[in-house]
Design goal:
This protein has two domains: 134 residues, Jelly Rolls (Sandwich); 107 residues, Homeodomain-like (Arc Repressor Mutant, subunit A), CATH 1.10.10. Helices cover 51% and strands 22% of the residues. It is built from ten helices and seven strands. This is Transcriptional regulator, AraC family. GO terms for molecular function: DNA-binding transcription factor activity; sequence-specific DNA binding. InterPro entries: AraC-bd, AraC_XylS_family_regulators, Homeodomain-like_sf, HTH-like, HTH_AraC, RmlC-like_jellyroll. Keywords: DNA-binding, Transcription, Transcription regulation.
Length: 247
């Protein structure tokens, strides 16, 4: 028997390292957050579907707008189906436009009160499991797209250009831009801005460095550049966030 529920997480909140007794899938409905597992932090947004193995420790930090997620505990038969396709690797995640739409549809059906909702939810969950088993995207593309994400995380504080990123994965820049947006629902530049802002948030909360020092450490041109991007993504400035946290 499968169970599914929708859970909301407060803006700018954090969840320390924890484990689940049973394997589960998590589908992001709205908002953004960063999950750290096995020492690696990965940013997630709407349409991202993640697998969490039983007993696997992981922690989460939610962005300024918070997040809503669907938490699914698959039935044993569904787990066998996914395992047979090599889909149950700890920390594995996929993203696709259809998954973002499924997240919205499932959230709406869970709120519905009519007697057809349960049947509709069952059908949507089966589609979700099928997409996860297939990988959301074909495996060859998923592999090099993951390398793009890894490269952005590893070099987020440096000067990055789409041409250089594309060269690292042996693809044309136009192809990288198009497929990255299709897979993750955000442009390469938008993804880079998000992970830089997330790093800035961590430094603002835990360091006594100046705003100018934090800006350079996070890959922004200067403090003013960081403030503009931070305000655009979080609706506030780094200075205001720091004052609010210390207050």
């Amino acid at each position: 028997m499968q169970s599914i529920r929708c859970k909301a997480y407060a803006p700018a909140s954090a969840m320390p390292a924890h484990r689940h007794d049973e394997p589960s899938l998590c589908l992001v409905v709205s908002g953004r957050y960063e999950e750290t597992q096995r020492g690696r932090a990965v940013a997630h947004g709407p349409g991202h579907l993640l697998y969490c193995a039983a007993g696997e420790p992981h922690s989460q930090r939610f962005a300024g707008e918070g997040a809503r997620k669907l938490l699914l505990r698959p039935a044993p038969a569904a787990l066998e189906f996914l395992d047979a396709r090599g889909a149950l690797e700890p920390g594995r995640h996929v993203a696709a436009p259809r998954l973002a739409a499924l997240a919205r549809e499932l959230a709406a059906e869970l709120d519905a009160r009519d007697d057809c909702a349960a049947m509709v939810v069952e059908g949507l969950v089966l589609e979700l499991l099928g997409l996860f088993g297939r990988g959301g995207e074909e495996r060859g593309r998923a592999a090099w797209l993951q390398r793009v994400r890894d490269y952005l995380h590893e070099h987020q504080a440096g000067e990055l250009a789409l041409e250089g990123v594309a060269r690292e994965v042996g693809r044309h820049p136009t192809h990288v831009a198009r497929e990255f947006k299709r897979a993750f629902g955000v442009s390469v530049g938008g993804y880079l801005r998000e992970i830089r802002v997330q790093r800035a948030e961590r430094l603002l909360d835990g360091e006594r460095a100046s705003l100018a020092q934090i800006a350079i450490a996070c890959g922004f041109c200067d403090q003013a550049h960081m403030s503009r991007v931070f305000r655009a993504l979080r609706g506030t400035t780094p200075a205001a966030r720091r004052r609010a946290r210390r207050g």
